[in-house]
Design brief:
With 214 residues, the chain is of the alpha/beta class. It contains eleven helices and nine strands.
Length: 214
């Protein structure tokens, strides 16, 4: 998958569950739940020791699921993610080292930005998509709209502080390809094994995405 193909897939699904797995055993039922809810994507963050094996499990057991790796802070973590089968890499900030390494390994990378400087660094490397993070804490839609205006063609994936309440407003922006959300499959819900609630959250996200008009 190349960066343009990833952007197309994210524009199709519109919402990306951002997930921190408490244990690798949660990966398989999570994948089944998301696919059953019509949301075939997950970003598995490297905020827990279960990330690498969780990604490998999802890729092996659920080939219809688009699986990314999140919170990738260095080259070693990027290698762990790629070797486990991650189809794209997401970082909270713009690390030239991480971005360049992912490009060398020919995997799509979505670095985090909250300034024009970050956008220009991404453009210089030919990236079509950046993560706007932390979205709400950085200024929400007001900052996003102001930043996006001079950079026609750059797509954004806002993440951080998004909820079912503000998701429609973000998805209504033409410069927003997709939004990341931790509320869909929170660590607490996974730890409790409440896949019914996760399924409801995922279906609600799909409904919101279908109703939102860029």
């Amino acid at each position: 998958m190349n960066p343009s193909e990833l952007l197309g897939e994210l524009r199709r699904v519109r919402v990306v569950p951002v997930v921190t797995l408490p244990h690798v055993r949660h990966a398989d039922p999570l994948g089944e739940t998301l696919l059953g809810a019509g949301l075939p994507v997950a970003e598995i963050t490297f905020r827990s020791p279960a990330a690498r094996d969780g990604i490998a499990t999802l890729r092996a057991r659920h080939p219809g699921l688009l699986v990314g790796a999140g919170t990738v802070l260095d080259r070693a973590t990027a290698d762990h993610a790629i070797d486990a089968g991650a189809q794209f890499v997401v970082a909270p900030g713009f690390s030239p080292d991480v971005v360049d390494h992912c490009l060398e390994r020919e995997i799509p990378v979505v670095p985090g930005i909250n300034s024009p400087t970050g956008i220009e660094a991404a453009l210089a490397r030919g990236l079509p998509l950046v993560k706007y993070f932390p979205a709400e804490a950085s200024g929400g839609l007001r900052l996003l709209d102001a930043m996006a205006a001079p950079y026609d063609g750059m797509a954004f994936m806002p993440t951080g502080g998004l909820t079912p309440d503000n998701l429609p407003d973000y998805l209504s922006r033409p410069h927003v390809a997709a939004c990341g959300g931790t509320w869909i499959a929170s660590t607490a819900l996974l730890a409790e094994g409440d896949y019914e609630a996760i399924g409801r959250n995922a279906r609600r996200a799909v409904e919101i995405a279908a109703e939102a008009t860029p």
